[in-house]
Amino acid sequence: MRDDRQQGSGDEQIRPVEVRWDLGDTSVRAQETLWRCDALRAGRLYQRSVFASRKEAEAFVAKMQQMEPDQMFNVEAIKASAVWN
Fold first, then answer.
1. Whole-number percent of the chain with pLDDT over 70
2. Where are the domains of the chain?
3. Element (H, E) at 49
């Protein structure tokens, strides 16, 4: 998160945080398949993340299961066209 406030200006504003998707170098290869990871808590969708490879998604799940053992995770392949036109 970036803090764009100027010191001593008295006019402090909070700016929205950018969302970045690290999907590798997509300029080199067009990817048809992305991997969606849904985190469920108490049967409801808690968080949805998108990854460029299955390996990245599964590494994310492994790390999250250690930190959030009460969540269930589902990793599935989706078409990139379902995310972007």
1. 62
2. 33-82
3. strand 44-51
User: CA 58, 75, 18: angle at the middle one, nearest 5?
Assistant: 80
50: which residues sit within 8 A by CB, 6+ positions away?
Answer: 21, 23, 34, 35, 36, 37, 78, 83
Q: How does pLDDT run across 34-78, given as a tens digit for each residue?
A: 999 999 988 899 889 999 999 999 999 999 999 988 899 999 999
**Cβ atoms 11, 3 nearer than 8 A:** no
At 50 the three-state DSSP class reads strand
| Gap between the Cα atoms of 45 and 13, Å rounded | 32
